[in-house]
Amino acid sequence: MNTPEPPPSLDRPGAGLSLPQLLFSRLVLAVASAVDSRASALRRFNAEAQSIREMVERLDDSIGTRPVLVPSLLGLEDSSRFWSPFMVVEHLVIVDTNMLRIMTDLVAGRLHPDEARIQDFKPRPSAGRSSLAAFDKLVEQFNTQVPHWPELRTRCRHVHPWFGPLDAHRWLSLAGLHHGIHRRQLKLILASAGKCPT
Question: Are 2 and 68 in contact (CB under 8 A)?
């Protein structure tokens, strides 16, 4: 009989990235947002979302709900390394919801009222299959709203705790990059479970 893996000792939520990881992550976002158009940033967001969906949708609940400790991964906080596949998706729902609200305010010329705090965006250990439907809905919202927004290089900005004040364009670039980080995390989780995602 398989016994559950004991929770590892990890940094507290919100502890952040190591300095080398933080500096490199800032460089990646700066380059991506400099070369991205609205359309290309949205394409990256959608492509990563589709890959994530395909990896998770057919998992048995026994795999989907089982946390797996993954190695250190660029852009992934230490406290986020012991998640299940459904926890990864629930985290994306939480973060994408927040990013969409921030960008909606910025393109409307409003300051977003809530501080973005990394520790507030962690999933529940009990996250389940329902997170997939919520994820699909959010991806659809991005695709129905973002193409019709006015200028994304907004004067108003909102502070990300790792990347500083970002306009709506940089938040959109970050959304796709963030999906990519967690797609790589999912690959590691599923490889550990013997699922060998492509």
Answer: no
Which position has the token pair 């520790």? 119
Q: What is the pLDDT of residues 101-113, one digit of tens each?
A: 999 999 999 999 9
182 three-class SS: helix
In the block, which residue shows the tokens 């933080």? 22
> Which parts of the chain are beta strand (E)?
68-69, 82-83, 158-160, 164-166
- pLDDT the model gives residue 7: 64
CA–CA separation, 130 and 132 (whole Å): 5
pLDDT tens for 47-100 read: 999 999 999 999 999 999 999 999 999 999 999 999 999 999 999 999 999 999
Give the C-alpha separation, 8 to 68, whole Å.
Answer: 10
Whole-angstrom distance, CA of residue 69 vs CA of residue 39: 35
Q: Which one-letter DSSP state was computed for residue 4?
A: P
DSSP state of 164: E
Mean pLDDT of 39-43: 98
